[in-house]
Design brief:
heterodimer, A: alpha/beta, eight-stranded mixed sheet, 24% strand, B: 296 residues, mainly alpha, 13 helices, elongated
Chain lengths: 330, 296
């Protein structure tokens, strides 16, 4: 990997609810290099968003609690940083865009105000300078008639435009890392592609890294350099994007790939992964995936596997990785 | 990444008719509420009359004319005279001043306190919320009339004291409303988005969440004006209200003894209280519909 920008080491975040302690993520480690795009994929509730919020230290507490680990960002452990320091980092060094462009903009503040906010906050620009920079950002995210849009409210914009505004807000201070939490899930397909293309060109232009949280494998194939697959709060596989698509090692990854509908293959029925995500309060013994795994053996039900290296860039959490045959096995 | 990058041509939109602003929309919806419009007109009339009271009335409200004691309404005395021969119309006009001042300022005090408590409780949650809300419960459970009576009996009966007493006992329901709004709004994604930009707590509470609660606060304030006028009238009627110049409640109280001989002394100020409070409630209703079109 090139120069490491952020190094997440063995974090565990739990939620304390009345039914008990839910370990939303358990021993998650990952690294993102400068200007690299890393996709995090997995089903709903597997801990993708919690990982992102832990990095930003935005876990609501209570009920949430970051219990262990370290998030080393440019040599500084964010989990040990003061709240004041975190506010300087948020928006300036690490920015985030959210899933729902409909609700992530404040309905009562103008588009301009919301973009200017972080500029005034982090770069101590005057109102005038912030206005011009914000206008520049709107132009950069290809919003038509930006001067007019600056004074408009979110309800006057379409979903795609709102997501562009969110991107403009997040990127206004040229962050080094952009965390995009399912940025296109709420948009229709043509807009999705536009937004993805926009994010990618801005990434190249501004030289930032992107942590892309998604469950859309098509997006992953197009955008990401590396992919991290999560299941039930753990990283189960990590590999460069081509390697992962060609040779998935974990049965879960294989299942995910097989469940993508394809136009170029004649299949009568879509493959699914049977069963459901386990309740994090009652995790199965052994490997967390074993109840749903068609290759599960006795060992899988007793001992939980650690992450092991398949080659120097590819690791998997499985006792019986699928090997180089992985992609073709049915 | 090998998708072609399509830049959208930067186009200017064709001239569109100016979009209506938020306030224009509110005014448009408010106008459709007939009762609220009539009420608003009535309140404006009453306010102008109260402000211009000395110019409108032909008699000084203190002018005692024993020869004209307990006269029925006539052209000279539109609302008749009281036992001391004072012109009830002049007294009612001036009483309007007092009642409206008490209403507005007491509601203002209640809104300030209620909003403050609601914002702090709702934004911070946890034990702060617990303490403030239990305090609110205490205030709500307290028999307010007796509290008012006791305080009003101990303190001198000045406008300021009456305003403070009423204002400081009528904030709890507003605090609850604001807190409820905050509890749901602070979970909204735009608040999380603001946090992810590094915006400070107090700024999130004041410039991101509070504007979203303005509609219920304005409605609550309007309703509370009527409530405060009524509360003052109640106090005055049992003798602890503002006497000089008299509020509507004090005029009522003074006319009570001669209710059979001279019902006009109580009838007119009573009607004024009734219609004014009703009007404030209708305006509040109209505002509720106009400010939040989603409710309909």
């Amino acid at each position: 990997m090139p120069d490491v920008l952020i190094d997440v080491r063995n974090i565990r975040t739990t939620f304390h609810i009345k039914e008990g302690v839910v370990p939303a993520i358990e021993g998650v480690s990952l690294q993102i290099g400068r200007q690299e795009t890393v996709a995090i994929v997995g089903e709903s509730g597997c801990g993708k968003s919690v990982t992102a919020l832990t990095i930003m230290r935005l876990i609501q507490s209570p009920p949430g609690r970051i219990e262990q680990g370290a998030v080393i960002f440019e040599g500084e452990d964010l989990l040990k940083a003061s709240e004041k320091r975190m506010r300087q980092i948020r928006g300036n060094d690490i920015a985030m865009i959210f899933q729902e462009p409909m609700t992530s903009l404040n309905p009562l503040l103008t588009v301009g105000f919301q973009i200017e906010e972080s500029l005034i906050l982090h770069q101590s620009l005057s109102k005038q300078e912030a206005y011009h920079k914000a206008l520049g950002m709107l132009k950069r995210v290809d919003i038509p008639a930006p001067e007019q849009r600056m004074h408009e409210y979110p309800h006057q914009l379409s979903g795609g435009m709102r997501q562009r505004v969110m991107i403009a807000m997040a990127l206004s201070c040229s962050p080094k890392l952009l965390i995009a939490d399912e940025p296109t899930t709420a948009l229709d397909v043509t807009i999705q592609a536009q937004i993805m293309i926009l994010m990618n060109s801005l990434r190249e232009e501004m030289g930032m890294a992107i942590m892309l949280i998604t469950h859309d494998l098509g997006v992953v194939a197009n955008m990401a350099d590396r992919v991290i697959v999560m299941y039930a709060g753990q990283v189960v596989e990590e590999a460069p994007v081509n390697d992962l698509f060609a040779h998935p090692q974990h049965p879960y990854t294989q299942g995910l790939l097989l469940s993508v509908p394809r136009l170029d293959a004649r299949v009568s029925k879509l493959n699914t992964i049977s069963g459901t995500v386990p309740n994090l309060l009652y995790l199965p013994r052994g490997c967390r995936f074993n109840p749903r795994c068609s290759y599960a053996q006795e060992r899988c039900q007793i001992e939980s596997p650690g992450l092991t290296q398949v080659n120097d860039a590819h690791s998997v959490r499985c006792w019986f990785p699928l090997g180089m045959m992985g992609g073709k096995k049915q | 990444m090998n998708l072609p990058i399509q830049k959208q041509p930067s186009l200017t939109l064709p001239e569109m008719p100016a979009e209506e602003t938020y306030l224009q929309g509110v005014w448009y919806r408010f106008k459709r509420h007939k009762l609220a419009m009539i009420s608003l007109f009535f309140l404006l009339l009453i306010s102008v009359a109260a402000i211009a009271a000395p110019q409108i009335s032909r008699h000084d409200y203190r002018e005692v004319m024993p020869s004209r004691s307990l006269q029925a309404p006539s052209r000279e005395h539109l609302m008749g005279t009281d036992r001391l021969g004072r012109d009830v119309f002049s007294r009612a006009l001036l009483g309007g001043r007092i009642s409206l001042i008490v209403g507005f300022t007491a509601a203002f005090v209640a809104v300030i306190v209620g909003t403050l408590v609601g914002v702090v409780a709702g934004y911070f949650g946890g034990w702060v919320d617990d303490i403030l809300m239990r305090l609110t419960d205490v205030f709500m459970a307290f028999p307010v009339l007796f509290l008012l009576l006791t305080i009003a009996a101990v303190l001198p009966k000045t406008v300021t004291n009456i305003v403070l007493v009423i204002g400081l006992t009528s904030w709890p329901s507003l605090a609850r409303t604001v807190r409820g709004q905050f509890l749901s709004l602070r979970e909204m994604e735009f608040v999380e988005a603001a946090r992810s930009l590094g915006v400070k707590n107090y700024r999130i509470a004041l410039s991101y969440i509070l504007p979203n609660t303005v509609a219920p606060i304005i409605v609550g304030a309007t309703l509370r004006i009527g409530g405060a006028i009524l509360a003052e009238a109640g106090l005055a009627f049992i003798g602890v209200g503002i006497i000089d110049p008299p509020s509507w409640g004090s005029i009522l109280d003074a006319g009570r003894a001669v209710l059979r001989q001279a019902p006009w002394i109580t009838f007119f100020p009573g009607m004024l209280i009734f219609i004014t409070v009703l009007a404030f409630n209708f305006v509040g209703d109209g505002l509720r519909d106009a400010l939040d079109p989603k409710l309909k």
